[in-house]
């Protein structure tokens, strides 16, 4: 019951995947189907929705109503859904003169929380005015999602209805937004549930990246209605087929309607690269693996690797792939299928259309889809191709497979090549099918490159593999990227080169000097797609950026800071005047990392924006929400004590606890000491009013330790005033653990708190460590240690520990070894 004395209840079933058995006796295997006759008796003030349109309404007694729906087609029970919602709810439709969408409705459920928290107090007690205001606000917020839903649906009807004769069984799709849905979305036949926050895009209040997320989510669920629901998997082991097709075709449709979104380019750098990174450490199960119940389904395989593998076929076969999907749906609609049914449908289209993909096929005279795709769906990991040129015979290229695959792996790989002279990244006809096994001899391919040309393999990263060239070819690519002609290399291959090189470097297969030479070209690059792998590399390496005493890390930060400075001089820090969505994304990321690398220009810019914002008493210089943290935290790094106090007073006024975290970003030791003194327990006892509540004190303490414990002066201050600074609600062991997790040198670990500062007997930070720097940390795998060493190694050999390895070892000790002696420390604390 809300403050207007109106109930706002939403009732929705959750039958996926085996939850239907909780409500009614049933067979809930995906291969088993039935026709469902659904009728719902409910109060007349409620609206009932289900899989099919309403056939009739029957008024009953006592204000009750029967809603009777049309019978469903044959389908598994996990696609059945029922929704009951209290009127009013938002039901809007976008109609265009050139496009009509007679079967699509978008429903937003009006939940009690929104009216309860209505920002317009004058509307209190007037439900109609509150509701109208709510309609107006939310119709704008979900407008972009509506446009995606309706445009994708319309294009499907135009492109697919002629061939999918019974597709008219999809008579309506209702989109239901629910505040606290456990998943991003759940799709049923004719109904799609979304978590409300995931379909809201407000142009001036949400970062532009959210637009891409909303588009992908809605398009995926619409596509599921047309393809995923029509054919169900014969077992849970094959659920990845439906999701893979829905994700891939959904993005392909968006790409056709909204070309500026470049959603397929984003797919490669965000999804395919992520799949390769996860598959490196065998974190992804094979697509085809035994699944006895839905809880065993690997989400990485289902949502990441599946569409990536299908993209290989899509890029390779094009129309034959699309027509194969059509044939697959026509032959198996309202029935269940296995992966081989899909491969047979595609194979039929290849044969029927006389599609000859490659003028030269090695070992495989006829394209056999099932044989080609078998390794990619049944095996883990992926191949790494070693590509070596014969510089005495410029036409000869040798390709071999990395020897890290099992004896059972047999890969049919679609190899595409271009040269510097040709730089044709769109011609897939000049390609080679090669079959690689660990026992295979290297393949020799003849090309037409000139002696000084580079060659690039895997055009537009069509294949699911990595490529490692001989050092000379790597240098030729790097030199070309660092020239004005760099844009002649396709954007996806520029991204692929950075991503492959980083992975090969951190796994010890590529000298680090080559990687950093490649990345130096980024000072010319203004495309977010090409920058994306480097941004992910920054995230991966962020764990070592705190090792400021290590010279190689300082050098890396300086070099990357200079590159970012050059880019930001071109694109600026202000995205308001920028129209291109990808440039906006690059500005946000470049500004974030430039300040992380302590680039003075970036920090000064943030400080200027912060002071300008704090001087604004009339809201004219309001910060965009996604720039708020950067402006406050990075601007606070060099802020004066006066600015710091002004920000603290802003927290007192607004009680926005995020500001308390921003206040810890200052690099001024005296300000940090002042901040800590304001949180001291003694200070609280002497004050007539407690400035900070317990949860706020804990947040401040943990934030300061995380940001500043590696600084000797601040660490000593914390240890010397440990009892007073430590929140009373936080145990000594928890506080010490947090300190230990944020110091990075042996010397810091040996510092001792003041005897009067803690109740722990002889509580040296180092007392919980094995401080012998030659000891190997037991919890850190050898492979992980080697990876981090390779980022900064001076020589290409991996024999023996070097200075970077030792420094990293100490870093990992400080993160992991604490658990070994935690019991002993707790015993001392109890004394």
Mean pLDDT: 80
Low-confidence spans: 1-6, 92-104, 109-127, 357-365, 682-690, 757-788, 793-831
Main-sheet strand order equals: 7-8-9-11-10
What is the CATH first-level class name of the domain at 142-348? Mainly Alpha
Major sheet description? 5 strands, mixed
Overall geometric form: globular
Question: In what range is the share of β-strand residues?
Answer: 5-15%
Oligomer: single chain
What would you give as the CATH superfamily of the domain at 142-348? Answer: Neutral Protease Domain 2
As a percent range, the share of helical residues equals 40-55%
Task: Report Rg.
Answer: 30 Å
Continuous helix count? 30
The counted number of beta strands is 21
CATH topology of the domain at 142-348: Neutral Protease, domain 2
CATH architecture of the domain at 142-348: Orthogonal Bundle
Straight-line N-to-C gap: 53 Å
- What structural class is derived from the secondary structure elements? alpha/beta
Question: In short, what is this structure?
Answer:
Belongs to the peptidase M1 family. The protein is α/β, with parallel strands linked by helices.
Can you characterise this structure?
There is one protein chain. With 831 residues, the protein is of the alpha/beta class. Among the domains are: 10-86, Sandwich (Immunoglobulin-like); 142-348, Neutral Protease, domain 2 (Orthogonal Bundle); 382-386 and 388-448 and 455-520, Sandwich (Immunoglobulin-like). It has a 5-stranded mixed beta sheet, covered by helices on one side. α4 (209-228) crosses α5 and α6 (263-280) packs across α7. The longest helix is centred in the last third of the chain and has 21 residues, at 551-571. Residues 1-6, 92-104, 109-127, 357-365, 682-690, 757-788 and 793-831 have low confidence and may be disordered. May be involved in cell cycle regulation. Interacts with UHRF2/NIRF. Belongs to the peptidase M1 family.
């Amino acid at each position: 019951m809300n403050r207007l004395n109106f109930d706002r209840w939403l009732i929705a079933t959750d039958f996926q995947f085996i939850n239907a058995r909780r409500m009614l006796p049933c067979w809930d295997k995906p291969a088993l189907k039935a026709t469902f006759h659904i009728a719902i008796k409910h109060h007349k003030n409620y609206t009932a929705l289900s899989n099919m349109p309403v056939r009739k309404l029957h008024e009953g007694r006592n204000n009750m109503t029967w809603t009777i729906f049309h019978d469903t087609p044959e389908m598994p029970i996990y696609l059945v859904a029922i929704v009951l919602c209290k009127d009013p709810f938002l039901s809007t439709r976008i109609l265009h003169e050139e496009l009509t969408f007679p079967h699509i409705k978008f429903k937003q459920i009006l939940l009690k929380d929104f009216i309860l928290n209505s920002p317009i107090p004058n509307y209190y007690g007037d439900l109609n005015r509150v509701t109208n205001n709510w309609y107006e606000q939310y119709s704008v917020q979900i407008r972009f999602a509506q446009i995606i839903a309706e445009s994708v649906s319309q294009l499907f009807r135009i492109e697919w209805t002629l061939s999918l004769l019974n597709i008219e069984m999809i008579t309506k799709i209702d989109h239901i937004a629910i505040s606290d849905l456990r998943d991003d979305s759940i799709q049923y036949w004719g109904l799609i549930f979304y978590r409300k926050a995931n379909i809201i895009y407000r142009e001036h209040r949400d970062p532009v990246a959210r637009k891409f997320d909303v588009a992908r989510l809605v398009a995926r669920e619409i596509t599921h209605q047309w393809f995923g629901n029509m054919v169900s998997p014969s077992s849970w082991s094959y659920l990845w087929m439906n999701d893979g097709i829905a994700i891939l075709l959904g993005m392909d449709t968006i790409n056709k309607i909204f070309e500026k979104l470049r959603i397929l380019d984003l797919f490669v750098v965000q999804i395919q690269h992520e799949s390769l990174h996860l598959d490196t450490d065998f974190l992804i199960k094979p697509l085809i693996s035994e699944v006895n119940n839905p809880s065993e389904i690997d989400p990485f395989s289902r949502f990441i690797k599946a569409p990536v593998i299908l993209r290989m076929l899509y890029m390779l076969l094009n129309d034959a792939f699309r027509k194969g999907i059509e044939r697959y749906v026509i032959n198996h609609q309202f029935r269940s299928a296995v992966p081989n049914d899909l491969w047979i449908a595609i194979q039929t289209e290849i044969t029927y259309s006389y599609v000859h993909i490659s003028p030269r096929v090695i070992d495989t005279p006829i394209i056999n889809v099932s044989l080609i795709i078998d390794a990619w769906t049944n095996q883990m990991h992926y191949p790494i191709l070693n590509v070596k040129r014969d510089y005495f015979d410029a036409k000869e290229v040798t390709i071999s497979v990395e020897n890290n695959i099992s004896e059972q792996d047999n890969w049919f790989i679609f190899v595409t090549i271009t040269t510097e002279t040709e730089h044709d990244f769109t011609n897939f006809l000049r390609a080679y099918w090669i079959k690689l096994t660990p026992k295979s001899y290297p393949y020799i391919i003849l090309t037409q490159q000139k002696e000084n040309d580079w060659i690039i393999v895997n055009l537009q990263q069509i294949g699911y593999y990595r490529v490692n060239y001989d050092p000379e070819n790597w240098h030729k690519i790097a030199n070309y990227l660092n020239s004005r002609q760099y844009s002649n290399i396709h954007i996806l291959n520029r991204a692929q080169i950075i991503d492959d090189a980083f992975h090969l470097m951190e796994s010890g297969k590529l000298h680090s000097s080559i990687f950093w030479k490649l990345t130096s070209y980024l000072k010319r690059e203004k495309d977010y797609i090409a920058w994306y792998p480097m941004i992910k590399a920054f995230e991966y390496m962020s764990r070592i950026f705190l090792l400021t005493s290590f010279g190689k890390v300082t050098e890396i930060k300086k070099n990357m800071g200079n590159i970012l400075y050059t880019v930001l001089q071109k694109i600026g820090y202000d995205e308001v005047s920028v129209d291109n969505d990808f440039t906006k994304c690059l500005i946000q990321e470049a500004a974030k990392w430039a300040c992380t690398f302590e680039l003075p220009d970036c920090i000064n810019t943030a400080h200027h924006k912060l002071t300008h914002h704090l001087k604004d008493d009339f809201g004219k210089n309001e910060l965009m929400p996604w720039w708020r943290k950067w402006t406050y935290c990075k601007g606070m790094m060099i802020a004066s004590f006066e600015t710091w106090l002004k920000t603290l007073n802003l927290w007192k006024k607004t009680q926005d606890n995020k500001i308390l975290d921003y206040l810890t970003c200052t690099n001024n030791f005296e300000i940090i000491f002042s901040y800590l003194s304001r949180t001291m327990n003694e200070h609280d006892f002497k004050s007539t009013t407690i400035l900070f509540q317990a949860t706020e004190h804990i947040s401040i303490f943990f934030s300061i330790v995380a940001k500043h414990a590696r600084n000797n002066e601040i660490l000593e201050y914390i240890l010397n005033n440990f009892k007073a600074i430590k929140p009373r609600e936080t145990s000594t062991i928890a506080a010490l653990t947090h300190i230990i997790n944020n110091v990075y040198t042996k010397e810091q670990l040996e510092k001792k708190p003041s005897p009067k500062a803690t109740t722990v007997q002889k509580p040296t930070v180092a007392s919980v460590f094995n401080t012998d720097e030659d000891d190997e940390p037991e919890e850190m795998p050898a492979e992980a240690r080697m990876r981090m060493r390779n980022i900064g190694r001076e020589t290409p050999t991996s024999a023996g520990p070097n200075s970077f390895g030792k420094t990293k070892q100490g870093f990992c000790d400080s993160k992991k070894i604490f658990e070994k002696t935690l019991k002993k420390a707790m015993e001392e604390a109890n004394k």
